[in-house]
Amino acid sequence: MAVATQTVPEESVPHPRARRLTWLQEDFVDRTRARAATLNQLLLGSVVFALAFMIAFGPFAGDVVLFFTGVVVIAVVTGATLVIPWNRVAPGWVALVPAVDIVAITLIQVSAPGSALGLLWIFPTTWLAAGFGLFGLIAVVVAGVGIAALLTALNQHFTYATLLLPLVLIAVATTSHLSARRSDAQRMLLAKQSHLLRRLLERTRRQEQELTEVLDAVDFGVIRIAPDGQVAVTNEAHGRLQQIVLPVEDAAGDVPAFRDDGRTALPREELPLERALRGEAFDGQIVWFGGEPGPRQALSITARRLTDSSGQDAGAVLVSRDVTAELNALRAREDLVASVSHELRTPLTSILGYLDLAIEDPELPDRVRSNLDIAERNAERLLRIIADILAASSTSTSVAASLSPVPTDARDIVRASAEALAPRAAGRSITIDTSGLEEAILWADPLRIRQVVDNLLSNAITYNREGGTVFLGTTGDGVSSWILVRDTGTGLTESERARLFQRFYKAGPSRRAGTGLGLAISRDIVRAHGGELGLHSAPGVGTTFIVKLPATAPEGTPA
Fold first, then answer.
1. What rounded mean pLDDT belongs to the chain?
2. Which of 180, 149, 153, 178 is nearest to 165 (CA)?
3. How far apart are alpha carbons 188 and 476 in whole angstroms?
4. Averaged pLDDT, 434-456
5. Which of 139, 232, 328, 360 has its CA 20 to 30 A from that of 75?
6. Cα dihedral 101, 102, 103, 107 sign
7. What is the pLDDT of residues 539-555, one digit of tens each?
8. Radius of gyration (Cα) for the chain, nearest Å?
């Protein structure tokens, strides 16, 4: 026999969590209804029993039998409310309790028509209006009309006093009904807000767990610093990076830190974490951890400041990446290039010497001499390239060790460089403007600074437009001195400016002359003097290089 089945749409099936929430709400409402029935009836019973005690031992002008009949009815109903499990009965049955109470109070009032015992009607009418919604309020109004009719019949004539008690009962019941509705609305709002907050809390916990899992999955360290300087969050990669450098048995000690050259000690106040705690933000600070011999590790560390929704400081985040393999590979490449270049320079010097001897032969035919001149020029160019590679492979420490700084006027160095490159500029109709040269005393090695100026001026001529201008300037303030080289060429894009000082990099598809080492070498020379090489450029405007150098010798330098 075939059985008909009905497929229930998935969206119509309530979620288990929603069903559990509904059951909890229903159970709460049932238990509230049971407590309300018991408390309301006990309150009325207490007042009635107190009256019965006083009437039993005192004078009473009314019908005692009728009075105590009403008291017995209320006592029976009170006992029933204590016994009956109201949370297991339909809500409508609870309304019988105040209804029976109204009847019992009516018996009590009839037993003494001129008394104020009718005030007891306030208890059941208030309960009806507050606990049973609009139906209860309508029942109170009907009961009020009935009470007014009863009082009129008992007094046998209509007075304002007869109408006052029913009106007060209806007014009190209406106020109770409105208060109950407002209380229900507030309770419902609180329940919704509680449910919303619970969902937000669950979502926040889930997002926090996902974020933690993501942070633990990446291979770079992350440190979150709170506004008060406390480390709030770290991921597993940060711990792994620390364990590589610092063995477990030495965890209490301080790991020596070095600058990017791997040899110069890094002061504690310049450590990335210390800088971040001071409120600094920086990109890609290279720090070597660990001394030689022993395990060493190079980290590239970046710090970013955080702000909250009001714009206030919210701490910082540090991201560290292991670049040991990259730096070791770069160092190995530079060592290889330096070794190969050094080996090439010796035979090339010998080739140039023999070419010079051959060119000086008076019996050499002109055609052969011309070919040898071309060979000599290219050999000299190759020798200059090898010299640049060797200079680039040297570290800033070796450059600083080879300096012989003396007080010198930057104006003389720049003017001599302009005179030497004037023929080359004239070949492209480029004007070299030296009207901006002022006295600017430097504490520097004249030969090394001349190398820097020659490179900057040569680039300004090479990458300028035909018929352009190169502006040269020098100035100083007694503390620092500046050398300016500005051209009217095509300029540089933002991406080219970011990579211009990288070794072997040549900006632009048409910039194929040279090795791409000149600017990197120039910057190393300037930094070895304690200065800085700056750049300002924009496409179509031109490029400006500014060399800043100290004007006096550092303190402690022997005179």
1. 78
2. 149
3. 77
4. 88
5. 139
6. positive
7. 878 889 999 999 888 87
8. 49
| Residues 6+ positions from 134 with CB-CB distance below 8 Å | 177
- Specify whether the CB–CB gap between 323 and 220 falls below 8 A: no
- Residue 121: DSSP 8-state: G
Structure tokens at 12: 């119509």
Cβ count near 522 (within 10 Å): 24
- Helix/strand number for the chain, H first, E second: 16, 13
Measured CA to CA, the distance from residue 328 to residue 296 in angstroms comes to 11
Tokens 């001499």 sit on residue:
369
Are the beta carbons of 397 and 431 closer than 8 angstroms? no
Residue length of the chain: 559
* Cβ proximity of 520 and 435 under 8 Å: no
The closest alpha carbon to 141, from 186, 100, 165, 173, belongs to 173
- Long-range contacts of range 179-186, CB-CB < 8 Å, 24 or more positions apart? 179/130, 180/129, 180/130, 180/131, 181/133
Sequence-distant (≥ 6) Cβ neighbours of residue 127 within 8 angstroms = 36, 40, 98, 136
- Say whether pLDDT at 184 is over 70: yes
* Structure tokens that stand for 293 in this block: 């011999």
Average pLDDT over residues 359-376: 81
Closest CA to 107 of 63, 47, 51, 60: 63
* Phi, psi dihedral angles at 325 (to 5 degrees): -65, -40
HEC secondary structure over 83-109: HCCHHHCCHHHHCHHHHHHHHHHHHHH
Separation of alpha carbons 71 and 77, rounded Å: 10
Q: How far apart are the C-alpha atoms of 287 and 323, rounded to whole Å? A: 10
Q: What is the DSSP letter of 402?
A: T
pTM beyond 0.85, yes or no: no
Tell me if residue 339 falls in helix, strand or coil: helix
> Which amino acid is residue 109, in one-letter code?
Q
CA distance 345 to 359: 21
Amino acid at 131: G
Residue found by looking up tokens 């409120």 in the block: 279
Q: Is the separation of the CB atoms in 393 and 520 below 8 Å?
A: no
Which DSSP category does 194 fall into?
Answer: H
Residue 331, SS3 per DSSP:
helix
* Per-residue pLDDT tens digits for 243-253: 544 443 344 44
